């Protein structure tokens, strides 16, 4: 019987080619999008699930409570040793420190090749906590001895041209010979660990102040601590016990630490601690459901509209003995066949667009994922659910047809039912389309607001260069003078990092004007020389700039600092003392600068102080003339290399750094544009299918109206009004919904754009125009035909 159902279904599909094509293409686009979204969600939800003891692995994190709460995916350097030796919760504890841009020299084929590499300094137990196996499958990785390292296969091939490199050596930082003791299998893309070179923690001392680990004050995300807990540990009890550590080691600090255990499964998907925002994945999933829903709505609308034309077929089947169940399953088999063809086309579409999808989101989804048992199960469930959802209602509707009315030709569209349902579903389509367009406009405006609003400093045509080695005052100012002589260079400054988009964020405690207690807030350190303000065009609002100096005796603060200490005006701060960094540094405030955005618009502007000290200059900020950028960069490399001859010249433009802070938002925007377009396209196809039926149904009416004097415009208006009413109803529903959800999204930004009324007007107007275009083609085509043809009775 099922074979017979499929045979009849195939004949019906061939008979109505246009409507079959509309249904299949709409569902195929929905399936293809759903497949890509499924692969994307699976990718992000599978991070770090390949480790043997993943449920017992935790990262130690810190909540810092002052005037607000900050979250750091790190702990003080001394934490690991104390947790390992004084508590009995863990089997293993290990910390790692990452350093970027270290120079590695490798001898190969008689020549020395120089590389700039990001590396991890790891304690020995790190590879006993995590399952990163060697190429021979062995997990016995040892980094206990100094001057040892393990590297990945791909890194071995790049450096040495072979993976058989155990016993080979390279020079680290131009002075240390490091021996490779193992080669790791390439770390999966679905891992929080994206480094390829791991060096013994014993070699860290030259590269970081966190090597000895006796400090309870400073926290940096460059240092992370991991633990493998013993089985059956209560995390809440451990975190409660750790509350005693700050009381013992930080008794007088205003910055209250609360140490947390973050499960390995949450590292990738915890926005507070620097991971991906889970809302991003939820939005992806909802959009995938929207696209499938719109395609199913098209199918239901077209199928219920066809019910009138299939009424005689159903009547004959009933007279010949078919039951309602037979008719229901007959129609469901047609739905299944259409869905099956569509899902095959959807897979083909997904494969074709996978490279572009990977490029857009900078991930590495592969076609191998399409042959997994989990993916096949997903497709089967999707096929069954879509077939049932799309086919059940039309099937029930057709099976209820009264045979005697059908055979006498006395049925009309009201008798076959579905008119109200079609209107409801079309409204739902319009609601989704309008909401997606509104979301696209709001996200676009927020990104524009964040990138084009005055950040309080100049980010255009500024090149950031690394100070590759610690320089004394004479060396630094000598380099600076040479760089200033380069044609095209307008300003040069030395700094710890640039304002906005920098890689180094350093907050510290502060004591103002010899008050007895430290302030309840922390202050951000921005080390820079006397040209810092000029280079980045940061305006003074009170006082003066500090004078050229090698050490901190004078400093600048920002307007936010004045607000935090309760000053009645910025001038009140001038001449007051400020003690920072555990009161080890004390200086006089000589000027106040205008507030500037040092991080993304999701965060509030922080109190800042700016002061000079040569030994902390990590970067050079160079303002250049953009008319000859390439030539200026070539000369800058020449001058820079004279000082740092053993290093690789590398630079970044400041505006690129700032833009990186909004990468997630840019992807939201790309997502909204692509899927809004697809949703509207699928909806328009459904409307086109519906208008074909309605025009066919009302041909004689059109002929009569033309005979009575109606023109093409009158007929087009007649046909359009029903849909225009539905769009207005959809707009009334979509406006509050879209406003509510986009307002929630914008709450994540401390500094945000407004939701303007014209976002909704544009969205509704766009849907109106596209609907009219879709309706007009068939309507005008029928309206221009001779009424004689329309009124002729066969």
Describe it:
It is a single chain. By secondary structure, the protein is an alpha+beta fold. It has four domains: 1-47 and 280-417, no CATH class; 54-267, no CATH class; 436-455 and 662-794, no CATH class; 469-646, no CATH class. Helices cover 48% and strands 17% of the residues. Strands 13, 14, 15, 16, 17, 18, 19 and 20 form an eight-stranded mixed β-sheet that branches. The protein has a six-stranded mixed beta barrel with strand order 3-4-8-5-7-6. A hairpin with a 3-residue loop joins strand 1 and strand 2 (69-72). The protein is globular and about 100 Å long.
Keywords:
794 residues, alpha+beta, 8-stranded mixed β-sheet, 6-stranded mixed β-barrel, 17% strand, transmembrane helix
- The averaged pLDDT comes out at 82
Overall body shape: globular
* Terminus-to-terminus distance: 37 Å
Unreliable stretches (pLDDT < 50, length at least 5) are: none
- How helical, in percent, are the residues? 40-55%
Quaternary organisation of the protein chains: single chain
Strand content: 15-25%
Sketch the major β-sheet. 8 strands, mixed
Q: Count of helical segments?
A: 24
Task: List the domain count as a whole number.
Answer: 4
Evaluate the radius of gyration.
34 Å
| Helix and strand composition category | alpha+beta
Please report the total strand number as a whole number: 22
Protein name: ABC transporter permease
Domain MacB-like periplasmic core: 20-242, 431-612
Pfam families: FtsX (PF02687), MacB_PCD (PF12704)
Keywords: Cell membrane, Membrane, Transmembrane, Transmembrane helix
């Amino acid at each position: 019987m099922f074979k017979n159902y499929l045979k009849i279904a195939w004949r019906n599909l061939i008979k109505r080619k246009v409507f079959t094509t509309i249904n299949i293409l709409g569902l195929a686009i929905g399936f293809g999008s759903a497949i890509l979204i499924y692969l994307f969600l699976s990718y992000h939800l599978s991070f770090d699930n390949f480790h043997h003891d993943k449920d017992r692995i935790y990262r130690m994190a810190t909540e810092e409570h002052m005037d607000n709460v900050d979250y750091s995916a790190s702990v003080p350097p001394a934490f690991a040793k104390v947790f390992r030796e004084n508590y009995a919760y863990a089997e293993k504890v290990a910390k790692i420190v990452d350093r970027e841009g270290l120079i590695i020299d490798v001898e190969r084929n008689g020549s020395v090749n120089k590389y700039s590499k990001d590396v991890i300094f790891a304690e020995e137990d790190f590879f006993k906590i995590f399952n990163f196996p060697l190429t021979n499958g062995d997990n016995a990785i040892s980094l206990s001895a100094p001057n040892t390292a393990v590297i990945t296969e791909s890194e071995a091939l790049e450096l040495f041209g072979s993976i058989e490199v155990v016993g080979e050596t390279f020079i680290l930082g131009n002075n240390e010979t490091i021996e490779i003791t193992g080669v790791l299998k390439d770390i999966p893309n679905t891992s929080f660990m994206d480094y390829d070179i791991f060096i013994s923690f014993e070699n860290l001392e030259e590269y970081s102040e966190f090597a000895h680990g006796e400090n309870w004050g400073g926290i940096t995300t460059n240092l992370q601590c991991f633990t493998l807990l013993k089985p059956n540990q209560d995390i809440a009890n451990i975190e409660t016990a750790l509350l005693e550590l700050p009381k013992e080691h930080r008794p007088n600090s205003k910055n209250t630490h609360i140490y947390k255990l973050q499960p390995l499964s949450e590292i990738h998907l915890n926005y507070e601690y620097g991971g991906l925002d889970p809302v991003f994945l939820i939005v992806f999933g909802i959009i995938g459901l929207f696209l499938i829903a719109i395609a199913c709505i098209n199918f239901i609308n077209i199928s219920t509209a066809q019910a009138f034309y299939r009424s005689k077929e159903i009547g004959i089947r009933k007279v010949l003995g078919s039951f309602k169940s037979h008719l229901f399953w007959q129609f469901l088999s047609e739905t299944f066949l259409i869905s099956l063809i569509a899902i095959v086309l959807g897979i083909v579409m997904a494969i074709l667009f996978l490279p572009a999808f990977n490029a857009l989101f900078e991930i590495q989804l592969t076609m191998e994922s399409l042959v997994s048992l989990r993916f096949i199960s997903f497709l089967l469930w999707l096929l069954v659910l879509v077939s049932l959802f799309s086919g059940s209602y039309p099937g029930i509707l057709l099976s209820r047809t009264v045979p005697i009315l059908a055979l006498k030709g006395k049925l009309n569209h009201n008798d076959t039912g579905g008119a109200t349902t079609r209107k409801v579903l079309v409204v739902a389509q319009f609601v989704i389309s309008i909401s997606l367009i509104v979301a696209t406009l709001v996200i676009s405006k927020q990104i524009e607001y964040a990138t084009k609003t005055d950040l309080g400093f100049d980010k255009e045509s500024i090149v950031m260069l690394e100070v590759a080695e610690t320089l004394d005052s004479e060396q630094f100012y000598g380099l600076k003078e040479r760089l200033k002589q380069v044609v095209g260079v307008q300003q040069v400054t030395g700094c710890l990092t640039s304002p906005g988009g920098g890689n180094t964020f350093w907050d510290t405690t502060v004591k103002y004007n010899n008050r007895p207690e430290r302030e309840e807030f922390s202050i951000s350190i921005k080390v820079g020389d006397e040209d810092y303000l000029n280079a980045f065009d940061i305006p003074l609002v009170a006082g003066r700039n500090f004078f050229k100096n090698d050490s901190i005796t004078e400093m600048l603060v920002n307007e936010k600092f004045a607000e935090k200490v309760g000053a009645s005006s910025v001038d009140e701060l001038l001449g007051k003392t400020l003690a920072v960094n555990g009161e080890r540094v004390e200086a006089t405030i000589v000027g106040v600068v205008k507030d500037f955005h040092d991080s993304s618009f999701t965060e509030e502007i922080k109190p800042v102080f700016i002061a000079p000290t040569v030994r902390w200059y990590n970067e050079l900020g160079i303002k250049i003339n953009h008319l000859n950028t390439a030539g200026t960069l070539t000369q800058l490399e020449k001058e820079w290399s004279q000082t740092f001859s053993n290093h690789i010249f590398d630079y970044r433009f400041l505006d690129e750094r700032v833009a990186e802070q909004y990468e997630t938002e840019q992807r939201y925007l790309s997502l909204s544009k692509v899927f809004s377009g697809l949703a509207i396209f699928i909806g328009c196809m459904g409307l086109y299918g519906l208008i074909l039926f309605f025009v066919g149904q009302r041909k004689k009416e059109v002929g009569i109206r033309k005979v009575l004097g109606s023109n093409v415009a009158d007929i087009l208006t007649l046909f359009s009004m029903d849909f225009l009413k539905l769009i207005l109803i959809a707009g009334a529903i979509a406006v509050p919904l879209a406003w509510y959800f986009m307002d929630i999204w914008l709450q994540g930004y401390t500094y945000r754009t407004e939701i303007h009324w014209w976002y909704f007007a544009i969205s509704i107007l766009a849907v109106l125009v596209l609907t009219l275009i879709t309706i007009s083609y068939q309507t005008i085509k029928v309206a221009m035909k001779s009424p004689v043809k329309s009124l002729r009775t066969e």
